[in-house]
Design a protein that fits this description.
The chain is α/β, with parallel strands linked by helices and 195 residues long. It has a single domain, classed as Spore Coat Polysaccharide Biosynthesis Protein SpsA, Chain A. The protein has 6 helices and 9 strands, in the order βββαβαβαβαβαββα. It has a 7-stranded mixed sheet, sandwiched between helices. Strands 2-3 form a two-stranded antiparallel sheet.
Amino acid sequence: MTTALVMAGGRGTRMDLDEEKPLIKVNDKPMIEHVLDALLNSRYVDKILVAISPNTPKTREFLKDFPVVIVETKAKGYIEDLADIMQDRNYLNEDEPVMTIVSDLPFVTADHIDDVLTEYYKRNKPAMCVSVSEELFKEYDIIPTLVYEGLVPSGVNMLIANSQEQEQTIYITDNVELAFNINTLHDLDKSGNLS
């Protein structure tokens, strides 16, 4: 079984909205609720941590209705907060496999989660980056945040809970739902194409 860590502490400044980013609604539900539903219905996820920060007090309140463990971060930044959590033995055991997932993937499903985890455990490597082809982004007119060798990281990764450098593989998925990492109003507008 696997622990999932939902990163939900960012300010979402690129959205330029008053609402906290994890609570922005897609199909009448906050984005983070879509992610939690997918994780709760996964065959392989047995514990869910949600990282929040002083930037997301309403998200903290919203999470009270869900069977998750809330992790307070210092809002130092995504990478810094993630590194702190991965080393915190109050939440994760040493060398425990952890799926990290952003809170703004409103089209992710339990089947996508299970597909990623099945692939990860087949590979027998400590880390795996889930990526989507840049071509899918072009097809749906989504603007990627980062492109490396024609691939775009999806916002879903697998890591081992320690502070050491980890050998990583890249899993290229054709699930366009993992491409809809909603970072801007443009992304939010284009996400209607999948609704």
